[in-house]
Amino acid sequence: MKKILNAPVDYVDETLEGLMAVHPEYYRLYGETNRVVARAKETAKGKVGIVTGGGSGHLPVFTGYVGEGLLDACAVGDVFASPSSEQMADALRVADRGAGVLRLYGNYGGDVMNFDMAGELVEFEDIRCTSVLLADDVASASIDEREKRRGVAGMVYAFKTAGAAAEAGQDLDAVTAVAQKTADACRSIGVALGPCTVPQAGTPTFEIADDEMEIGMGIHGEPGMRRGKLLPADDIANEMMDRLLEDQPLSSGDKVSVLVNSLGATPAEELYILYRTVKARLEAAGATIVMPLVGRYACSMEMAGVSFTICKLDDELESLLKAPCDCAFWRVG
Amino acid sequence: MKKILNAPVDYVDETLEGLMAVHPEYYRLYGETNRVVARAKETAKGKVGIVTGGGSGHLPVFTGYVGEGLLDACAVGDVFASPSSEQMADALRVADRGAGVLRLYGNYGGDVMNFDMAGELVEFEDIRCTSVLLADDVASASIDEREKRRGVAGMVYAFKTAGAAAEAGQDLDAVTAVAQKTADACRSIGVALGPCTVPQAGTPTFEIADDEMEIGMGIHGEPGMRRGKLLPADDIANEMMDRLLEDQPLSSGDKVSVLVNSLGATPAEELYILYRTVKARLEAAGATIVMPLVGRYACSMEMAGVSFTICKLDDELESLLKAPCDCAFWRVG
Amino acid sequence: MSIDQKVLLAAVVRLKEAADRDFEKLNAADGALGDGDLGITLRRGMELVSETTDDMPEDLGKALLQCAQAFTKSSGSSYGTLMATGLMAMAKSLKGETAVDASQVSTLVAMARDAMQARGKAEIGGKTVLDSLDAVASATAGKQDAIEVADAASSAVDDALNNFRQTQATIGRARMFGEKTIGMDDPGMLAMQTIIKALANRT
Amino acid sequence: MSIDQKVLLAAVVRLKEAADRDFEKLNAADGALGDGDLGITLRRGMELVSETTDDMPEDLGKALLQCAQAFTKSSGSSYGTLMATGLMAMAKSLKGETAVDASQVSTLVAMARDAMQARGKAEIGGKTVLDSLDAVASATAGKQDAIEVADAASSAVDDALNNFRQTQATIGRARMFGEKTIGMDDPGMLAMQTIIKALANRT
Ligand SMILES: Nc1ncnc2c1ncn2[C@@H]1O[C@H](COP(=O)(O)OP(=O)(O)O)[C@@H](O)[C@H]1O
Ligand SMILES: Nc1ncnc2c1ncn2[C@@H]1O[C@H](COP(=O)(O)OP(=O)(O)O)[C@@H](O)[C@H]1O
Ligand SMILES: [Mg+2]
Ligand SMILES: [Mg+2]
Ligand SMILES: [Mg+2]
Ligand SMILES: [Mg+2]
To answer: CB count, 10 Å around CB of B321?
Structure first.
């Protein structure tokens, strides 16, 4: 296992310890098991809370996006494993400032069950919760079964727009509607070139030959749509854009933001090489690109590969996307 | 070669093309060969220029740090290869606003010869140039031969402080003195777990067994001080801190900033795990940590490993470090 | 024979042993179709349950709630959450009771199955742990005698595995493997085999 | 026989062939001690020089300046910059001349050596290309006859390699390899062997 760590069982707790030590101005730990990350500063009474949660190993997702104009709290699971419902309940508790809490997270079985359970727990404490699930990975199910799709990097857009809406003082239903609109507007697809290793498992999540890639692979190494020879960058980008545009056709006058995201090991240089084709394809479809994002926004530790996310914008989403936000990993405005 | 690219020979030009497409608000290309990156907006007349240059494959270094409060221009070489003296001369030309230009770059043979030659070329055009070389890698030569040390991530600190001094209107000699003071105050060391591949070479820069690491390896795969079994994170951090503190002892009351930098593939999680020990060691030495930096600041494409840089601060450097800056990869203030 | 605190404590011991024994097997089965943590989930859950046996309440409702909480705390994996959900449903219905007759097993298992179905929103017949519980509930229905119930439950979990082996997974991480899952056992059903056999004290 | 534009153009053809022929060898030698680009640098430089042969000036100073610029443009690698520096030094001294006698070769090579030393700040004796040039300058000193000069230069580059093989590298990327460099040829000296032998038309 080519990783820098101490005991595998301590990987997540030590990561959080370091994160708190570097960024006390952004984050603090909360809850019995120290597996909830909340904003360093308590938010004003009456602000709608936004909580996410999920497995570790995806920094900046999920924890990193706790911050102004973004999330209020995050329940932190082990690497690639759901946090417990108790931890999620703690996250909901710390995020509630009397105006209710939106649960905004990726569509994974364990997370859904636990967030549902956590919601039932805090209902007894009169905390009103809504839910929006990200299901943006077009490779994980057909459009007819959209509710079965996994949530991937698209959640970054939902964190941003819902976070801006909450910061602007919108109520729970309005914030939830913004999040849902964003989730509906996002489509993502990934391509994997190399695996990562879950510390406690100790072996790579999948095997892949030196000259192969897998289009559509999930962020935990879930099988994709097609494995084949590693193609030139432009061909990879075109194939990924084909899938995305097939799923959500664009036409003249559409506005989109696009996220070209490294899964971890793939360097910035290669993201920029890919972006050329992404831009060309979007413009060829007649779309205008707003605030393109290129970098590491949602990773799988040292996995090699990239994902593209297209988020179709209306005026409301565009202005929420451009609104200020501030966390250790992302700043707008 | 597990990389996302088109023709290897186009790797750098296509990277720049994408970078310009994503960030026209920060960067523009300049020069006959399109291998100079300058600030999007021309700076005011009379501002001292700061120019860097070096091989590609290190994003955000070098190009990324062109921006307000940082650099004015950068000459961009092929991957891990010096730009030509003509390209450097173009960078000096675009950066000169009548107040002279500081050449601020890493100590590599080719770069030094070319920057010297470039300086001679623009001297004919009455552009006054000074030079400060980063030579912060303690693994590359003993302290008695400091002038032989390579420049690594420490240059990020020098870009920041010199950039702030220039933005504040200091003259060429003053900006040069700030850069030199910062260069003198920086010590770095790296550890490599896995290689990267230079596109035009097509083979990994070095070979290393699955259970090995190399302490002191250079950012281009230059041999290090010690190759051995991969140690637990805390032991790696302690060994690296031993070397750094041996080279530049710290005592009670010292102020430092520290950069825990991924060489590319190593994920943020593991940087935070390492930071725990870095912090403990600095505090045990009596030092106060100012503005710790943890992330990807100076990479070698998809190389796995990390580097630590300690920059010892006085009040002047501290306030320059904290001054605002803004580029696509780093924002302060 | 009726089930009371003493019977429960003895079952916990057997369950913990079984979880230890099948640790690798369940991890491997889950590794082939999911994330390979199912053995961990079961073992860790039973460890936490075992740590609470010293203060296991006589009230079977409270006792099962305590077991449920151990599973909630131990991890957030699907199986742990489903186990907790099922145990909680049984706990609610047994609140205040200190003994329960073997004839009630079928009803209790059906309750767990229904609560877990409500939680996980999977269909019966989807090749999940629900199908094992469904088979156990059916096979033990109408049976009064403890030994008969144990025998019926024990063969029902085996039969469920055999009956679903050639079908395709539709739920959870395994779903993504599509046709490859035909011929493979569902990890959650295997884990339920471990549990039911240990409870029934059959091998 | 004196060296003029025609002789220079013929030499460029031989140099380009030699750079193609030794491409892999020089990359490999540099790969063992550096970044493996030396073959690329030489070949690319000679390609660019060849592209300018149609307008090669008769003035040898201008002609060599044109060659120097090809090397500056082609890349920023150390060797390319050193070549450009050496060529520029010779160009300066030959400005206005259309022919140069073989007896001047030693002086010209020494000029290149000195300029390159000033540029790269390496010592003579440090196992670099400077030592090859130094050997050539010495061996050709005092010789008048073109054939004698060519013979002397050709064996001097071989001798230099032999004489330095067992010493340790002190400069550039190779320095980091320390004692491992003992027994290995310096890549830049190998490249100068390629160049001098092609110029001298010796193999
Ligand atoms: N929604 C669901 N409904 C019923 N059973 C489920 C559901 N999701 C998972 N399971 C069962 O749980 C097993 C996997 O459990 P586990 O390994 O804990 O999942 P994960 O690691 O993906 O969270 C499956 O084999 C299946 O039997
Ligand atoms: N400072 C220097 N002075 C003299 N010769 C040098 C110097 N640096 C490098 N060389 C020569 O150049 C050769 C390496 O050239 P090259 O491969 O272009 O270097 P790099 O790729 O590191 O820029 C060395 O073998 C040596 O002979
Ligand atoms: Mg699992
Ligand atoms: Mg799991
Ligand atoms: Mg070289
Ligand atoms: Mg080179």
So the answer is: 20
